[in-house]
């Protein structure tokens, strides 16, 4: 379809006949992301509030369809890449973000740690180095003031504000560690996501790390005491590294809770749709 034909279709968006509008809307959604620039141009040149609202809704539907497709593909073929999964979630709220800034920030943090990393460092020394780079020098910390803010679940906002929730900070911590060949992985501890230093995945972790508390080192008895307080069993599900799919599921559940607390049922419903894609 050429530009003139597309403009002609878009011009029908202000038609009062709902049957015509619904047909035009569905046609534009079917075209996919390629029509978004033209829709945005039409929005900017329009002085009709109804037409502008309809354009905004169509753009959102197109972008949401793309996110669903991206997440489904990640689930099927690329779930070993945690960062890619986090960026797909990030696109839900920030579809036009220049993601290169996320890669650059993570690369800088990795490089700063790599310069000081020594071959003969013990596991605890490596963790102390990461803690110094991420929490002291860069300034990452737990967002205790707005713990349930949905922004805590979007990786670029966490890197930008340097404030996050337990799972977002743990993701950043483990991504950088693994890029440095330091075996730190996420652990799906109920109520409080953490990480673990695991040299052999068939064996229990050497110790645990709490990125929300500036990389505090914890041990098996600390985790067992925490689970006992919650009246939960000492299950490997809570004490061993979890999959990236489990991490993304938890990120999405956090967002569902955050939007529910904000009284935003539309976003809550859409995130629930994304969660179901992975759960299926």
From TrEMBL:
Domain of life: Bacteria
Pfam families the record matches: Transglut_core2
The Protein SirB1 N-terminal domain, residue ranges: 105-253
Listed PANTHER family: F-BOX ONLY PROTEIN 21 (PTHR31350:SF21), SI:DKEY-261L7.2 (PTHR31350)
InterPro entries to which the protein is assigned, alphabetical: SirB1_N
Protein name in UniProt: Transglutaminase superfamily protein
Family stated for the protein in its record: Belongs to the UPF0162 family.
């Amino acid at each position: 379809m050429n530009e003139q034909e597309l403009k002609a279709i878009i011009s029908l968006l202000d038609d009062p006949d709902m049957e015509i509008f619904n047909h035009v809307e569905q046609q534009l959604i079917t075209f996919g992301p390629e029509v978004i620039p033209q829709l945005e141009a039409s929005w900017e040149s329009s002085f009709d509030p109804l037409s502008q609202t309809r354009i905004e809704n169509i753009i959102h539907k197109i972008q949401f369809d793309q996110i669903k497709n991206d997440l489904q593909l990640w689930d099927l073929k690329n779930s070993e890449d945690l960062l890619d999964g986090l960026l797909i979630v990030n696109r839900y709220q920030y579809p036009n973000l220049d993601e290169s800034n996320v890669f650059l920030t993570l690369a800088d943090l990795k490089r700063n740690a790599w310069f000081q990393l020594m071959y003969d460092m013990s596991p605890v020394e490596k963790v102390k180095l990461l803690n110094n780079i991420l929490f002291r020098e860069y300034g990452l910390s737990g967002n205790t003031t707005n713990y349930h803010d949905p922004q805590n679940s979007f990786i670029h906002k966490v890197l930008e504000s340097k404030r996050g929730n337990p799972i977002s900070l743990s993701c950043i911590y483990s991504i950088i560690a693994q890029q440095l060949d330091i075996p730190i992985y996420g652990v799906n501890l109920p109520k409080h996501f953490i990480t673990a230093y695991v040299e052999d995945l068939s064996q229990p972790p050497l110790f645990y790390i709490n990125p929300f508390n500036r990389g505090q080192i914890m041990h098996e008895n600390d985790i067992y005491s925490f689970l006992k307080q919650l009246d939960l069993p000492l299950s490997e599900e809570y004490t061993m590294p979890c999959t990236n799919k489990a991490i993304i599921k938890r990120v999405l559940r956090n967002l569902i809770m955050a939007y529910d607390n904000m009284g935003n049922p539309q976003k809550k419903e859409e995130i629930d749709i994304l969660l179901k894609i992975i759960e299926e």
